[in-house]
């Protein structure tokens, strides 16, 4: 009898593989869109900010699906949720294939992001429940699927060459989508650790509380408001109404440390995902000088991430998760600063530094939340991921596009003033606006027909602006390093960082899934 119980409670490695391939699918969609963004921009005459908005919508709807499914996933079921994600991935590929402009590209990317959020809403708590005593280690293993997908999807697309129709590249996402769809079917997902321990639904909500709800709801509402053109007053009223109702129900501010972790997640996600959304395009001019497509820089840093995430177990045994995050933040800032001015072979050196720095960010943050707030079950982990994704989408991807457009706008004006030319009034003729301000965008059609000398000057300004954007992003990991260092000092004053473990589950429930911590 004991042998049967042990087998039933052992982690299901094939189910873990299905979760891993599902994460690979999310990054396939990410990299394929990142690599085709320049083609979309050229074919549909999109500005950098419009391109950034499409990159952003590949991220922020993630927050909607990951939060909503986290609230109901224990009732709906993990497998049913994964079926929804599968449908989203297939539908997104179909809509994008038939896209005729900005709107359809936006909708197709939006649906992909919903599927991606659902995948994470399932896989993060499922893996944490399968490996309750080694959460950070196995979450790093799980999220090695992200850079693995970036590499596989990116290499496939890049080897197809820039001349290949982007529609064929987008269809590559069907390969891993069908893979996880088939892998998950015969397996039973584990019961969540919170449920097995008998922690109530209300107690789970109290871990997030009013403070956590204000952050995630505010981000979602303000992004939806920008899509539908709501006034700031409307956004504030809607946010306060939702959070107010939630507060009346839970009557808890939430765990202060958890709320702080949500705030820290914003700059962390911008550093990793916001930069990844643009890195291929930002580094394309410099990479072309050494005969490579810009996308290879993302492939290279992703390869570093795969190796290091699979080494996470040994590293975390030697340094605490927060210590690892503090070190990585400093390394990432250094890498971004070097990338902003690198040329030739030094691009690879700078990319190596940045790749090392960003390797442990996402899964280690989720691991810390899972270890410190297990009562929050799927919700605390997934709200953290949701804040990260929407922060990268709303702020990171868009602000990088805006920084480029605004810098081009200002530099062309400055060039005209110094050289008595009229490049700005001739080519920066398209007024645009975003949440960060207004600017005059370059008209791609006019620039294409410009005289060679003028075209070269404007292009030079554009290339300079792209690289300077990385210096702006480097400020985020610098701030992170300070935050993680302060948290280290806080835990040291409390006797050191320790994982929180829930009590043993009762016999009836534990037979349905892996044993709790």
UniProtKB/TrEMBL annotation:
Q: Does the keyword Repressor apply?
A: no
Which residue range or ranges hold the Major facilitator superfamily (MFS) profile domain?
Answer: 15-497
Q: How does it sit in the membrane?
A: Multi-pass membrane protein
Keywords on record: Membrane, Transmembrane, Transmembrane helix, Transport
Q: Where are the transmembrane segments?
A: 14-34, 54-73, 80-99, 139-160, 166-185, 205-224, 230-250, 257-274, 294-312, 319-339, 345-369, 381-403, 473-491
Q: Where in the cell is it found?
A: Endomembrane system
The family this protein is said to belong to: Belongs to the major facilitator superfamily.
Name of the protein in its database record: MFS transporter
Q: Which organism is it from?
A: Mucilaginibacter roseus
Q: Highest lineage ranks of the organism? A: Bacteria, Pseudomonadati, Bacteroidota, Sphingobacteriia, Sphingobacteriales
């Amino acid at each position: 009898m004991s042998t049967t119980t042990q087998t039933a409670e052992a982690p299901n490695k094939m189910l873990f593989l299905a979760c891993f391939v599902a994460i690979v699918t999310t990054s396939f969609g990410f990299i394929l869109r990142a690599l085709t963004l320049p083609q979309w921009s050229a074919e549909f005459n999109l500005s950098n900010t419009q391109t950034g908005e499409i990159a952003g919508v590949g991220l922020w709807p993630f927050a909607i699906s990951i939060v909503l499914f986290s609230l109901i996933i224990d009732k709906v079921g993990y497998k049913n949720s994964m079926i929804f994600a599968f449908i989203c991935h297939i539908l997104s590929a179909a809509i994008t294939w038939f896209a005729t402009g900005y709107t359809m590209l936006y909708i197709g990317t939006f649906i992909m992001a919903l599927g991606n959020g659902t995948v994470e809403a399932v896989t993060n708590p499922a893996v944490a429940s399968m490996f309750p005593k080694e959460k950070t280690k196995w979450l790093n293993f799980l999220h090695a699927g992200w850079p693995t997908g970036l590499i596989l999807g990116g290499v496939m697309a890049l080897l197809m060459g820039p001349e290949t129709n982007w529609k064929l590249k987008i269809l590559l996402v069907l390969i891993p989508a069908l893979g996880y769809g088939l892998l998950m079917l015969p397996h039973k997902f584990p019961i969540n650790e919170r449920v097995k321990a008998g922690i109530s639904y209300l107690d789970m909500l109290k871990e997030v509380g009013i403070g956590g709800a204000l952050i995630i709801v505010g981000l979602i509402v303000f992004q939806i408001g920008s899509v539908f053109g709501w006034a700031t007053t409307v956004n504030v009223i809607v946010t306060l109404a939702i959070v107010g109702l939630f507060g009346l129900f839970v009557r808890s501010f939430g765990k202060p440390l958890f709320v702080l972790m949500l705030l820290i997640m914003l700059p962390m996600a911008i550093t990793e995902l916001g930069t990844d959304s643009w890195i291929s395009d930002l580094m394309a001019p410099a990479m072309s000088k050494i005969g490579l497509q810009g996308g290879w820089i993302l492939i290279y840093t992703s390869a570093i991430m795969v190796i290091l995430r699979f080494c996470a177990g040994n590293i975390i045994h030697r340094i605490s998760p927060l210590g690892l995050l503090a070190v990585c933040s400093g390394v990432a800032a250094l890498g971004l600063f070097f990338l902003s001015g690198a040329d030739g072979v030094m691009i690879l050196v700078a990319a190596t530094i940045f790749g090392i720095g960003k390797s442990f960010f996402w899964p280690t943050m989720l691991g810390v939340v899972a270890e410190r707030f297990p009562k929050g079950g799927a919700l605390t982990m997934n709200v953290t991921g949701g804040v990260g994704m929407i922060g990268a989408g709303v702020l990171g991807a868009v602000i990088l596009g805006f920084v480029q457009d605004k810098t081009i706008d200002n530099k062309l004006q400055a060039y005209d003033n110094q050289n008595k030319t009229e490049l700005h009034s001739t080519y920066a003729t398209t007024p645009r606006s975003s949440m960060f301000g207004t600017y005059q965008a370059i008209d791609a059609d006019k620039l294409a027909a410009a005289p060679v000398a003028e075209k070269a000057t404007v292009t030079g300004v554009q290339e300079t602006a792209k690289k300077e954007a990385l210096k702006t992003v480097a400020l985020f990991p610098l701030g992170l390093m300070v935050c993680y260092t302060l948290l280290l000092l806080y835990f040291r004053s409390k006797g050191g960082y320790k994982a929180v473990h829930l009590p043993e589950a009762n016999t009836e429930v534990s037979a349905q899934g892996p044993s709790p911590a």
